[in-house]
Amino acid sequence: MQLKNKVAIVTGAKQGIGLGIALALAKAGCHVAVCDVDLAGCKKAAEKIKKLKVKSLAVACDVSKKADVDNLISQTIKKFGRLDILVNNAGIYPFVPFAKMTQADWDKVQDVNLKGAFLCSQAAVKKMKAGGKIVNISSIASLIGFEGLVHYCASKSGINGMTRALALELASKKINVNAVAPGAIETPGATVTMTKDAKQGTIAAIPWGRMGTPDDIAQACVFLTSDKSDYITGQVLVVDGGWILR
Ligand SMILES: NC(=O)c1ccc[n+]([C@@H]2O[C@H](COP(=O)([O-])OP(=O)(O)OC[C@H]3O[C@@H](n4cnc5c(N)ncnc54)[C@H](O)[C@@H]3O)[C@@H](O)[C@H]2O)c1
């Protein structure tokens, strides 16, 4: 699927799913602005993208801070002169039992996962024209419960609600807003604390018989950011190897 000369921003893109999305968009011909809290990581990702014969930009940005987000959008416009695609991928999922969850734990997760998508979308939409695409990275945790992730499940259900309402508001501007809800994906964030047993238990629960890869999610994003999906808006596409079908 060609996305030749489109300009995309992917948040939280120095590693994991975000990096996978940035690389897949670049392979499809997109110029990509990579943002993350870690500038050195962004620069490494931007170098990988450049090798795919498209332009790239690395911008340090904490998506929960409006000033950072405004800077991300203005740097992108300054470098590329346009913005066609926003993928709101930056997210955190710290496990905390509900009884021990502090207000600070709750606020941090909502700030990054939900407010971050709001701030980035609002700033991006001001620059997008008809044909613009927003993809929010949700989670199957928006649809089913996970112990220790009450704040996270709430934030991702919020993403689904935001996706539907924003899709409605932006339909007349011909900007699509959709979400991708990954299942268990092998990324630095997801596997850093995973024991071998936990991994085997997760795989046993997945009908497809393996964890997902960042590219499994990225290919759904390539589809949802291409003109092949122009008539799809406000939807949550589950990409989980069938995990939540049981
Ligand atoms: N890996 C999974 O199994 C899985 C499943 C469902 C949904 N997701 C979602 O996919 C997205 C990516 O997850 P991942 O597994 O690749 O995570 P990861 O931890 O490997 O990568 C996340 C990236 O986001 C960046 N980030 C964190 N806070 C940020 C902020 N405030 N501003 C900008 N960047 C920030 C991190 O530095 C990191 O590079 C998240 O939204 C996550 O909730 C992941």
What sequence of helices (H) and strands (E) makes up the elements? EHEHEHEHEHEHHHE
Instruction: Write out the strand line-up for the largest beta sheet, numbering strands in chain order.
Output: 3-2-1-4-5-6-7
Q: How many strand elements?
A: 7
Largest sheet: 7 strands, parallel
Low-confidence stretches at least 5 residues in length (pLDDT < 50)? none
CATH class: Alpha Beta
Tell me the β content: 5-15%
State the domain count. Answer: 1
- State the shape: globular
Distance between the termini: 32 Å
CATH homologous superfamily?
Answer: NAD(P)-binding Rossmann-like Domain
Query: What name does the CATH topology carry?
Result: Rossmann fold
- Helical residue percent? 40-55%
What is the gyration radius calculated from CA atoms? 17 Å
Bound molecules: nicotinamide-adenine-dinucleotide
Number of helices: 8
Structural class: alpha/beta
Mean pLDDT: 98
